[in-house]
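hey so u asked for the seq, here:
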Amino acid sequence: MKPTNRNSRNGSILAISLVTVALIGLALGSCLVLISNRNMSAMRATAWNSAIPILEAGIEEALTHLHRDSNSPTANDWTAEVVDGKTVYWKYRDFPDGSHYYVTNFGFGSTSPKIHSAGYVPAPLSADKFISRVVEVGTTNPPSLFNYAIAANGAVKLSGSAVVDGYDSSLGNYDPGTNRNASGGIATNSKLPKAIDVGSASLYGKAVTGPGGTVSVSGGLVGDLSCMGGIQSGWVNDDMNVQFQPNSAPDFKGKQDFPRIELIGSTNIMYLDSGNYTLPSFSSLAFTRPMIVTGNATLLVTKDFNVQGTGYVYIQPGASLRLYVGGSAAIGGGGVVNGSGLPANFAFYGLPTCHLVNYSGGANFVGTINAPQAAVKFSGNASIFGAVICDTFTSNGNTSVHYDKAAGYTGLFLVNSWREM
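ran it, C-alpha cells below
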C-alpha cells in the first residue's frame, strides 16, 4: 500500500487558504477604498454645493451696497481699489464655520454694474484648505426704482430759480440745514442737444443723458452742494440707457370695495378706507366734494383724474394711496395733500394710456410719480418731495424737486445674468 503524503496535502490547503484570505482581504480593501473615495467625493460635493449659499450671501451684500451706499461707496467696510484704471469696491466676510466670501462691485454708480462673488468653504479632511466657487453676476437697474429726482425718456426742462436736490425722509422732513444732500440727479435717455436744460435752476446731483446728449446751463449749476455755478467736473455723463417698463393695472382678483360716500347738505365727500377701489373717472371741483383717504387704499381710475377749483384730495396721517390712472391727470385746486409728509404714502402710477400729468395744485406734491409714457408738467410754486419717472418733464415757475433718497429703498438692482468663472 502506497503511503499518503500528508505534509504535501496540508501545504496545499494552507496555500489555498492564504490565497483565499488574500483575495478576501484585497476585496475588502478595495471596498473600503471605494467607500472612502465615494465618501470623500460625497463630502467634496457637499462642500462644493455649500459654496453657493456663501457666494450668494456675497451677492446679496453687493446688491445692498449698490442700492444703499450710492453716496458713500466705502461705507460699511467696503474697500476701494483701482483695477485697470477703474475704481472697484470689494468686501470680505467670514463665518463661524470657517467659510467666507470675497465680493467685488464693478461699475459702481452705473445702470448695469457687475458683481464678482467668490465663496470659500473648508475642504473635507484637509486642514487649512478650501473649496471655492466664483460667479460673475450682471445686474440692471429697473426703471421702476426711483434712483433720480427725475428720470425720463425725453427732454427735461427746468425754469426759474428751481432747486433740485435730495434728502432722506427716513431721517425726518426736508431741511436745508440738517437733512439735505446732492443725490437729486436728473437722467434721460435723450441723445439730443439740451437733453437736460437746467437753465437758471440749481441741480445738486448728477445730470445723465443718453450717448451724445448734452446738458445746458444758463446761469444755473450742476454739481454738489458746494458748487457755486456752472457744471462741476465729474457730475455730467452720457451713459444713460434704460428701458422703462410700462405699468400694469392692479389685479384685485375680483375683490373690490366701494367708496364710502358722505352726503351732508351740499357736501359729497368720498372716503377711501383700507381696500381696493375702481372708478371710471374722478373729479373734485369744489371743497365740498373732496376725496379723503383714511386707510391704506389702492385706487384704479380707468380714465381721467381731475382736481380743480377748490377741490382737493387729502391723505390723512397714517394713511396711504396708490393711485393708478388710465387717462389724463389734471391736478390743480388744492392738489393732493399728503398729511403724513412721507412720499412713500402716495404713489401715482400712469398706465400706458396715460399721456399727460399736469400738476398746478396749491399743495406741494409729496409722493412719487411713475408714468413712463406721460408728459409731466408742473406749474406754479408747488414743490415735489419724492421722485418722478416720466416721458418728458417740464416745470414752469419755480417748481423745486427734493429727491427722497428713501424712495429708492423700495427695491434693489435685479440680476439679469449669472456665469460661473
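The chain has a mean pLDDT of 87. The two ends are 84 Å apart (CA to CA).
lmk if thats what u needed
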